[in-house]
Predict the structure.
Amino acid sequence: MTARIEHVVTSGTFSLDGGNWDVDNNVWLIGDDREVVVIDPAHDASAVLEAIGERTLTAVICTHGHNDHINAVAEVADKSGAPVLLHPEDEALWSAVYPDRAPDVWLSDGTEISVAGTTLRVVSTPGHTWGSVSLYAPELEAVFGGDTLFAGGPGATGRSYSHFPAIIESIRDRLLTLPPTTTVHTGHGPTTTIGVEAPHLDEWLSRGH
């Protein structure tokens, strides 16, 4: 059976640098009827666990360490027994949410995660945070970019642990080089494609965000 992509939207609060914002998060599941991985379980562990159902959860993958992307990670991991995966450059953000717990596996560029006959390849895409990663699944013609690339431009870089030139470099060199038909599954809001976003790089550079 071919792996499929499933989607849950959860709602909660993003907090950083003394500010709080109400947000809706995309939680992505990739797998089949037997096993699945989950990307960025946010806000509502019960909703994520319900989507997983009776399947074996083989990994909880974090695209970055912002609290709105990881605040349901511990409960999902504890109730499923799955390991938590995060890039080490986001350890400070992780520790702000989980000061007494470390991720189980530190991700690095090129790490491959297999599920249901499909391979997700970790692509380091710093900028939104220093440890931001995207997960490319060529068999599914999909990339799960967290908050690196949205429909309409880069993720935010106006807060701590972020850098606009870095996110532009990540998008230009690591994401826009993927096939134009690749669907970008985002951390918030609608999906887009590499082909739709690629022509707008100069616009983003000009506006500075």
